[in-house]
């Protein structure tokens, strides 16, 4: 399964001096990177690939990491659930690129 998720902290010390939220977001990204699961982080979402239990556990820990900075956290999550398929984080893009070549 591939999950695209985004966490939005609200309140607390989540806001950086410049008005951004990078400190709180970095806490979530650290959890994702330390998970060992295939992942990509973009300006808007983090993509994570693995089995249901592993992926959801990482999303939960990432949410909890952001909650350490903010009393309220918004979570947006989209999942592509395709049992028996791995390597799709890059595989889907590679298949599209072949059609563009």
UniProtKB/TrEMBL annotation:
Pfam families: Thiamine_BP. Residues 3-96 form the Thiamine-binding protein domain. Belongs to the UPF0045 family. This is Thiamine-binding protein. The lineage of its organism: Bacteria, Bacillati, Actinomycetota, Actinomycetes, Mycobacteriales.
């Amino acid at each position: 399964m591939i999950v695209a998720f985004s966490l939005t902290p609200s309140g607390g010390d989540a806001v950086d001096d410049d008005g951004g939220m990078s400190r709180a977001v970095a806490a979530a990204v650290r959890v994702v990177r330390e998970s060992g699961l295939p992942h990509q982080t973009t300006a808007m979402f983090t993509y994570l690939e693995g089995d249901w239990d592993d992926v959801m556990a990482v999303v939960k820990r990432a949410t909890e990491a952001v909650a350490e900075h903010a009393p309220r956290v918004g979570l947006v999550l989209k999942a592509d659930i395709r049992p028996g398929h791995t390597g799709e984080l890059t595989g889907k893009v590679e298949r599209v690129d072949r059609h563009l070549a």
